[in-house]
Fold each of these.
Amino acid sequence: MFKTFLSAFTSPKAAPWLVTAGFFLVWELGCLLFHVDRFILPRPSEIAVQIVKQHEAIALNSFQTFYTTMLGFAVAVAVGLFLGLLVGASPKIYKGLYPLMVGLNSVPKVAIVPILVIWFGIGTVPAILTAFVISFFPIMVNVATGLATIEPELNDVLRALGASKWQILRKIGLPRSLPYFFASLKVAISLAFVGSVVAETVASDRGIGYLMMAASARFDVPLVFAGLVVIALMGVIMYELFAYIERRMTFWATRSQNPTI
Amino acid sequence: MPDVMLVNKPATTLTANGDGMPALVELQAATLKYGQGTLALSETDMRIGDGEFVAVVGPSGCGKSSLLKLVSGLHLPRTGNVRVQGQDVKGPIGICGMAFQNSNLLPWRTTLENVLLPLEIVEPYASTFRRNKLDYEARAKKLLKAVGLEGFDEKYPWELSGGMQQRTSLCRALIHNPRMLLLDEPFGALDAFTREDLWGVLQTLYLDQKPTVILVTHDLREAVYLADTIYVFSPRPGRIVSRTDVPFERPRSLPMTYQPDFVEMVQHLRDSITHS
Ligand SMILES: Nc1ncnc2c1ncn2[C@@H]1O[C@H](COP(=O)(O)OP(=O)(O)OP(=O)(O)O)[C@@H](O)[C@H]1O
Ligand SMILES: [Mg+2]
């Protein structure tokens, strides 16, 4: 009995659920034990109550955040893929673009939000753009890496057959960079949420970021945390979705070394 | 049976590149240099007849792989000439099949799809690939069967052993009936048994299709077993130190490789390398 309990605990399927549940449990008990003020750190149960109570506002604003994030992310995928292919396929473009790209990526993305506000005003557009700017870089770098690290001998096999650059790209370059691409999507989607929420806190009258700012102005700390929980939840779901797609699309890259049991 | 095949005929009568015949590949004082520095191949002259099986041996770094790059048109000579089918080589010539020490199979394609790859690129197959796909698949399966891989066509390369991957790589090099087969130590990473097994496979495929073959190898027994002509290269910068005709009749067999005149030839090559 104890043994089965233990094995359930250590089974890889149950582990994430148990660890997450444990995290909230420790949080809840810790707050109770040390009499932590709900204005400092609300208990998970208080946050849950707030989520239920405010579900309309939360749903409305999280939909807004979700939609700006996905729009920004979609543009990031398109631009990142395009630039990645361009940069990876041509060493010249790689050399030319590299310093600029690294420079741009070193700029803290929060710093560009005020500029976006000057250009586009308060609202949805700065959030979309921030999500895009923050998340396209890893996609570009990964796709370029996948292309640039093709084994030279493999290239030779195709070139000796008289294959054009385009044929080599299609037959080898693209499939080979797919695992890199999907791996980058998981990172990029998380970053996109960071970007849109950060922009919403400063430059929007809608979205989870805005909701949290408004709540903290009213000292509604449980609602602030409710916002955090909702963002985390959306992040986890999207991450898992892309991890699933990755496993489906590039099984050959993550092939198991162990014989199936 | 080996006795009959071991009759040591005068070398000249058996050379496949009989000097009157037009050569398929001709190198005239060809040199290859990488960047400003390394001279990989110096003033090499070579004539390879249509259907001739050539083996190239020599110390590591002497420019054997570079020679294959020259012949296939992947690199151009710094000075001198490389001619294939009477034409100066100006870029990849597109009539080669290639195989290397690593099988270089595509992990996202099944064995069958890997073998079919050249047909998706080389004309006249590429433009009719969709229409004739079934024919081509049948052909690939026949080839896979010939190398002992029947029933493995739906497996992925990473589900095959090293030797099986190398067999697949051979099939991929041969599927489009190339006029020329360039092999760069294709059996180098394999164990002795598998290697000798694949000599037989390669010999069968060669006798079947009669392409012109250039085989780079470090294994002198392999060279004598398979080739019509063996070129020995000097240490870098590579140049030809000797050219040996192999008189033994085909098909050659493994027991033959232990016969005195076979062993003697290997010995002789061995000496010419150490003294070069
Ligand atoms: N891409 C390259 N750039 C610069 N130098 C190179 C390059 N490829 C080969 N070389 C040099 O050219 C020389 C010949 O190389 P090559 O690969 O032809 O030798 P090899 O005879 O095939 O050697 P091995 O038996 O070890 O495979 C070597 O000295 C090597 O350093
Ligand atoms: Mg080599």
Note: Chain A has one domain: 42-251.
Amino acid sequence: MTSPSVINSSFSSENSFFSELVQETFALTRRLFLQLLRRPSTLIAGILQPLIWLVLFGALFSNAPDSLIPGGISYGRFLGAGVIVFTAFSGALNAGLPVMFDREFGFLNRLLVAPLRSRSSIVLASVIYITSISLLQSVAIMMTASLLGYGWPGLTGLLLVLVTLLLLVFSVTALSLGLAFALPGHIELIAVIFVFNLPLLFASTALAPLSFMPGWLGWLAALNPLTFAIEPIRAAYEGNFDLGIILIYAPYGEVNGFECLGVLTFLAIGLFLLIRPLLNRKLA
Amino acid sequence: MNSIELQNLEKSYGSVRALRGLSLKVPQGCLYGLLGPNGAGKTTILRIISTLLAPDSGSVHVAGKDALIDARAVRKLLGYVAQEVSIDKILTGRELMSLQGDLYHLSNEDRDCRIGELIERLDMNDWIDRRCGTYSGGMRRKLDLAAGLLHKPRLIVLDEPTVGLDIESRSAIWQLLLELRGQGTTVLLSSHYLEEIEALADEMAIIDNGDVIAQGIPHRLKEQLGGDRVTLRVREFSDENEASHVKKVLEGVQGVRQVVINRLQGFSLNCLIDKDEVIAQLRDQLLQEGFSVFSLSQSKPSLDDVYLQATGRTLQDAELAVAGIRDFKLEKKKSMR
Ligand SMILES: Nc1ncnc2c1ncn2[C@@H]1O[C@H](COP(=O)(O)OP(=O)(O)O)[C@@H](O)[C@H]1O
Ligand SMILES: [Mg+2]
């Protein structure tokens, strides 16, 4: 019997830094998508939950007095932007979970003994994965919302919506990945996600306008990053693509569209810079 | 030339001093065994070599490269098979190997060809396209081993590769390790099984309490002890009291060394004798003290005797001493990244 030799000539080709970085990042991202395909329940739940909200909340407030929403639009239309943002937000908040499981089950060690070109590819794969999933879910919600008669922002609007969501998803993903490396286990991570999730939704303009809120809540909502994502999207839905328009009449002053996106950009960059030392240490 | 050179390694986990100035050289092309009881520090050594862990002090060279400076170079030429198999339950074995191939930057053709080769060699065809979550312990080990060999490393490091495996899987792995060595790969494995090291290792080191207590070629180490090993019982199942009495008697006989009571074997007694004649004297002495010899066997010294000589206890006793004390869950949690 001739068995194939276990080692013959060794593989020795050394490719460019960039192509190897792409190869490892692609492989790690592919793994996350394979996991998702084999366990699609989280994806399905991530789309179903906001849809249920859209239908239930829309129905709940369908007889709300016109004075509730400034500008006299229906509550369903008002709610759409909030639900889209919340979908992307809660999807991104879960970004850290796969990483946490890899830490706990020792799979991360398999990645760390490999000669990765850069260990950022582990983080990068998570960012690519969660961004695609979040945007996918959001677009699914947008399409359903449009079927429900809550409107469609048009192509320019869609672009504005996606850019806004992208900035928010980056920020929240950074936060979640940071937590995934900082916390001791998945139980703690899930607890933190649980605690963050709904309060951030309620303390934003997703469900009700600022003018409707008591003073203290108005302050919270006007500082909540979700609000800075919701308002430009809401404006886009109303056909308002001019970012110079004032979108938030906050207790501390007026905020226009550019400033909203600016805050989100600043947040995304800031959070990535903030978690960098932690990631460097954990992945050293 | 040496494939691995460790010098004065120190490593503590909090207040636990796991390595105490340990130095070790593994020659190239050698199948090298690290033998030691649970808690000796084997995993710590292997994790340091594979760049997963940095020592508190000391130096680590693999194939001439400083692992503490050029870790990536070391990772490229080394395959590491951890003590705890880490697989992704949702992926199939083939997908896991494919991922591994990409992490080692093999070209697609090389990767797929190599995966096919290893599936064939390790007889994984029937199940490799099933999800890893369904695999038995033996299958997981094989897959893990195949993943470690995927990039054709010059050095493969295996941490207790056959623990908990059935005899068939174990011998398949032994076979493969010998074959690898035959092809010029340096193989470093740790084990707390005497038979495994006896069967495989060209050279070995005995690790105890974070340091090397003996090293060399297995049969040399045994020869160096000199004499023969004797196992003796004064009745089938004795007790502590009687055994310690017998121990005293034996220690009084000239030419008898290293008398120990083996509590796990019905309080039998083990000792080393310098020459055959000692046996007759030993029987006489026991008779005079009122003991009869129930059974007595004589053999060449084993690696266990080498360990016994150096530490004053058997491997099995050392193993038992830590069993139940170590909190593996907590250790795992602490060593999490
Ligand atoms: N993460 C950890 N935290 C605390 N102690 C540890 C940790 N890992 C290992 N140890 C201790 O270090 C010593 C050596 O452990 P290890 O290298 O795993 O030995 P072996 O592999 O020979 O069983 C043991 O006493 C063990 O309890
Ligand atoms: Mg160990």
Note: The domain at 2-216 of chain B is CATH 3.40.50.300 (Rossmann fold).
